[in-house]
Amino acid sequence: MLFAGAAFAQTPDKDAEYRDFEGPNGKIIQAALLDKSADSVTLLLKDGKRSVVPIDKLSPADQVWVNSWSKEKAVFIEKCRGLTVTQLLELRGYEAFNFKLHGNSILIDGKINGVAGTFIIDTGADGSVVYTDFAAKAKCDVGPFNHTVRGVGDKEAPAAEGKMQDVAFGEAKFKDIDITVYDPKFNVPEGTPAPVENGLFGADFMSQLDAVISYPERKIFLHPDNVLEANKQKEFTSFRLFRTKDNVTYRGKILSKTPTVITLTLQDTKTLQVPIARLVDDDAKYAVEWSEAASFFLEYCQSLTIEEVLALRKYKSFEYEREGNHIYVDGTMNDNPVRYLVDTGADTSCFNYDSAKAFGCEFGPFEALTVVGIGGTAKATETLVKKITLGDVILTNRKEDSVNLNKFRNDPDLKYIGLFGADFLRELDAVITYKEKKIFLLQRNNPNAPAPLKGK
């Protein structure tokens, strides 16, 4: 036998997560880790036998893996991995919002001073912005236009400070907030379509709400309790918001259900029966899909971080760096180490022209294209990047635009070489978490090389 240790038989577990373990004699055996102590592990072998093995008898690589293993992870793999990201976050007290994609930009609904609007979620924005027409509609107090905002356009756009009495996204509400106001029609060509959104919200809001942005499920998750109260007890996060069609909200967790009724345990430990048909569509769907796996998660897996849960789903993760309200990640361009600005508000990725040139990209005719953004229009050059990497993710032969991202700074040491935009984030099923400062990417394929550059 591979390992020396006590062994006895039990029925093999079809759901157990088996892996290869290497013993001191170099032999390999498949087993599932059932439990561990400070100096030993309990393994379930393929023949149904359990074996207690001293940790120091395992290979160095297996010892590292065992040290990172937890009972919570094992329960999650065996009982809870069928839960979606949405279900897992809602079980933690997050409120889910379906977002719409306009091009590749994320749009969610909210309210300012009680007036409904649609807003872009923009991780690349220095701060949040409300457009002038909507600020007037929402009766915001707008000061003089003696400030400026910058974007991809050639000019700095005039801006003002606006006072917002109420800003609301679902249950998350802010009071007496200052937000920049500017006119998106500034310096754009006549005939340019009006924006579909009424403004954009950046990391200044998202970080306060421990936001999680999930492209695969087209949802953004916000934790309203970060605003409602500064300090919540840990057990509070096991309760979820349930909303009814008659605008009543309950915070609780499902204790049991029938095909037509759920029984909730509320925060005050009371129980309440609610007809599923009375719930709003998203919550009714959650109730219908609720399973024992959700209960297992609440009971055994609450200590798992979002990073651990997504890693168990084979996502690749890496930390990002926050400077001010910007998210930066390290990667490569054509095998040169570089830094990108992660920008969910950028419909497509783009690069700083001088940086792309220095790192060996190929170009179409110089400044033959025109792009439109904050500050109006800017000249752009079609650019072919042979290789981009972020962590273990590799993108090859990508065609994007390059512009002068340094025009307002004149900084020889620009902090980033380009925008890692929503086109790449959407393709890679990105999940961005503000609390853990992590980006998770899942690469499924790498499309064929694009058409040749124009003029080549």
Describe this structure in words.
The chain contains eleven helices and 33 strands. With 456 residues, the chain is α+β, with helices and mostly antiparallel strands. Helix 2 (71-80) packs antiparallel against helix 8.
Outline the fold blueprint.
Blueprint: E1 7-9, E2 19-22, E3 28-36, E4 40-45, E5 49-54, H1 60-68, H2 71-80, H3 85-91, E6 95-98, E7 100-102, E8 105-112, E9 115-121, E10 129-131, H4 132-137, E11 141-142, E12 147-149, E13 157-169, E14 172-182, E15 199-201, H5 203-206, E16 212-214, E17 219-222, H6 225-228, E18 240-243, E19 249-257, E20 261-266, E21 271-275, H7 281-289, H8 292-300, H9 306-311, E22 316-319, E23 321-323, E24 326-333, E25 336-343, E26 350-352, H10 353-358, E27 362-363, E28 369-373, E29 376-390, E30 393-403, E31 418-421, H11 422-427, E32 431-433, E33 438-441
Helix pairs in contact: 2-8
Q: What's the number of helices? A: 11
**What is the average per-residue confidence, as pLDDT, rounded to a whole number?**
84
Q: What is the spatial order of strands in the main beta sheet?
A: 6-17-16-32-33-22
Distance between the termini: 65 Å
* Largest sheet composition: 6 strands, antiparallel
What is the beta-strand fraction?
35-45%
